[in-house]
Amino acid sequence: MATKKKTAKKTAKKVTKKKTAKKTAKKVAKKKSGATVTLGGNPVSVSGKLPATGKSLPKFSLTTSALQDITNKDIAGKRVIFNIFPSIDTPTCATSTRKFNEIASSLSNTEVYCVSADLPFAQGRFCAAEGLANVKTASSFRSNFGAAFGVNLTSSVLKGVLARAVIVANEKGKILHTELVSEIANEPNYDAAINSLR
């Protein structure tokens, strides 16, 4: 009888441990899980969530077309718009780069960075061919940017590149506006980005 009771107690402990481990795993997964956007209506997972408005920009690093790294220090004292997208070689990304180039010409003390995982050479080539001189290109190809801003795509054929998003910050690095575009094929809300600087 004593042996049966011991076995029953051990089994009960194992079951309790398994349940606790499952609950913990679910909590961790919830914390780690990010947003979901769509590509042609199909769901695509995003690595995290955009930083909250009112908070400071996360620490980041990006690579310019001159292959120089830029960080938070390099944008200190300037207002900044990050136009984030999957690839400069897609129609919507190209359109948003042209549009922000047009917008940037009328903004004072504001730098617009078009950010993607493309190599700096591809980004620079596109802007040169299009004559876009008001925006700056910045690549996340060797940096923590996607993770820091929660914009890495983690599923679908676009896994490994960045989601379409816009983040605006003031000269003190305080975030004024964020947008994660719900459908990757759509353009961002340009007016909302610009109005946040007024």
UniProtKB/TrEMBL annotation:
Question: Is-annotated flag, keyword Oxidoreductase?
Answer: yes
Question: Which keywords, in A-to-Z order, does the entry hold?
Answer: Antioxidant, Disulfide bond, Oxidoreductase, Peroxidase, Redox-active center
Keyword match Disulfide bond: yes
Annotated stretches, region: Disordered: 1-36
- Annotated ranges, domain Thioredoxin: 51-198
Q: InterPro entries recorded for this chain?
A: Redoxin (IPR013740), Thioredoxin-like_sf (IPR036249), Thioredoxin_domain (IPR013766), TPX (IPR002065), Tpx_CS (IPR018219), Tpx_Peroxidase_subfamily (IPR050455)
SUPFAM superfamilies associated with the record: Thioredoxin-like
MF terms from GO for this chain are: thioredoxin peroxidase activity
**Family annotation (Pfam families):** Redoxin
Amino acid composition bias (Basic residues), ranges on this chain: 1-33
Q: State the HAMAP family in the record.
A: Tpx (MF_00269)
This protein is called Unannotated protein
Q: Report the source organism.
A: freshwater metagenome
Organism taxonomic ancestry: unclassified sequences, metagenomes, ecological metagenomes
